[in-house]
Design goal:
The structure is a single chain. The protein is mainly beta. The chain has helices at 86-94, 235-238, and strands at 4-6, 36-39, 47-52, 57-62, 64-67, 76-82, 99-100, 114-117, 127-131, 142-153, 165-173, 182-186, 192-198, 201-206, 212-218, 223-224, 229-230, 239-245, 248-253, 258-263, 269-275, 283-289, 294-299, 304-310, 315-316, 320-321, 329-335, 338-343, 348-352, 363-367, 374-378, 381-385, 390-394, 402-403. Strands 3, 6, 7, 8, 10 and 11 form a 6-stranded mixed sheet that branches. A hairpin with a 5-residue loop joins β20 (258-263) and β21. The longest helix is centred in the N-terminal third of the chain and has 9 residues, at 86-94.
Length: 406
């Protein structure tokens, strides 16, 4: 059974004059000229709302009203209709290019567009129109649906011509946490190792030839360009991990040293410094926090440490413990001002961290994320890398639980 979500359109009253307990009501001699029939919802032009892209029915509401002075002495029948022919006219008048909402997204039952303003009342009861969005709307796109008064019976009152049609403007969006991912890169032929983003580039070592490659993000297409730009050298032979930090890249040699590279805006690489103060292979897992400008490493036994990193100055700071028990997670990645950690069951958790070693309360933000082998921070977005090397971008938001269980 389909669920119903209701979106109540605000009923805006149209008033004439000021009423007060202390002052008499001033009624003009020509008061009858102000009596008319109109749609309250037409006061807002366009009448905008957001519809979620789901398989659940959502509803809009509208009604007819009488404005001006005087009592209603009749039962007035008001017939409404969808008026698709007005979309072109509206766009021309307002310099917009809204699409008409697809007629397949709604069905009009018999009598569903007929309202009655009963004798002695000034408003009809609300009519409702059920809408289905899945398959009919795209996220980030707006659709127009004009609904207007087509006929009035039982009254000689005129129509308020400026308020007889409501232009319902619907903005499509996914419910938070339910937006499907977008494939941003097909790495099945590249066999990517240690992928990460740096600025607007996707970077990884290819296991096919051990070279490092980078790919610019095409914002118009929403994907990383497949045209490869690669470096010389056996990066996959020399290094077992490459990570971004503010100012450049950090690569971990196979013998445990760290190597830094400055990176230009167009991903030009230059050797910078080597750090051999410890064997960084002691960490079975390493990631970075761009927010804290720090390296993060997990040692055997599950202790996680944060090491601030000054690219141009003091290098790697002393490890600050983030606690133990982190060996229960199969993935740990820096994200914004904290960490994302995925356990073996696929549950993904977010917690804030600071450079003093304080770890915030873990917050469940996902389920089923063990379908991926790596997570990659991309601004506030998140990329999941599957076993084939295909990368999927999520417009991630930690306020929701992103359940991607299949």
């Amino acid at each position: 059974m389909k669920k119903i979500i209701s979106y109540i359109v605000p009923a805006l009253a149209v008033a004439f004059g000021t009423l007060s307990c202390d002052n008499p009501i001033l009624i003009p001699d020509n008061a009858e000229e102000y009596r008319n029939i109109f749609m309250k919802q037409a006061v807002s032009t366009p009448n905008s709302s957001t519809l979620f892209i789901t398989d659940e029915e959502q509803k809009i509401f509208f009604n007819a009203c009488i404005g001006g002075y005087g009592a209603n002495t009749d039962d007035i029948t008001v017939q409404f209709a969808v008026m698709p022919e007005l979309v072109e006219e509206y766009n021309a008048a307002n310099l917009t290019n809204y699409e008409l909402l697809d007629a397949g997204s709604y069905t009009i039952a018999e009598g569903a567009m007929t309202a009655v303003i009963k004798k002695g009342e000034l408003n009809s009861s609300m009519l409702e129109l059920g809408l289905f969005t899945e398959g009919y709307m795209l996220p980030g796109k707006s659709y127009l649906l004009p609904i207007g008064i087509s006929e009035v019976e039982g009254s000689e009152l005129p129509l308020n011509e400026s308020l007889t049609t409501t232009y319902f403007l619907f903005n499509g969006a996914y419910p938070l946490g339910e937006e499907p991912p977008v494939k941003v890169f097909d790495g099945s032929a590249s066999t990517p190792v240690t992928p990460f983003t740096y600025g607007n580039y996707l970077t990884f070592i290819s296991a096919n030839n051990n070279r490092v490659y980078w790919f610019a993000y095409n914002s118009a297409a929403g994907t990383f360009n497949q045209a490869e730009t690669g470096s010389d050298g056996d990066w996959g032979v020399l290094f077992n991990r490459v990570m971004p930090v503010p100012g450049g890249w950090v690569a971990r040699w196979t013998d445990g040293r760290l190597q830094t590279y400055t990176v230009t805006q167009t991903i030009g690489l230059a050797f910078y410094a080597t750090y051999a103060d410890r064997n960084y292979n002691d960490f079975d897992l390493m990631t970075t926090s761009m927010y804290h400008s720090a390296l993060i490493g997990r040692q055997a036994g599950g202790e996680l440490s944060l090491m601030t990193f000054d690219f141009a100055g003091n290098g790697v700071g002393a490890p600050v413990s983030l606690g133990t028990g982190w060996d229960e997670y199969i993935m740990i990645e820096g994200y914004r001002n904290g960490l994302l950690a995925v356990d073996s069951a696929g549950d993904m958790w977010f917690c804030t961290i600071d450079t003093a070693g304080t770890v915030g309360v873990k917050q469940l933000v996902g389920k089923g994320w063990n379908k991926y082998t790596r997570l990659v921070e991309f601004g506030e977005r998140l990329i999941g890398v599957d076993a084939r090397g295909t990368m999927w971008r999520y417009n991630f938001d930690i306020r929701a639980v992103w359940d991607i269980t299949e």
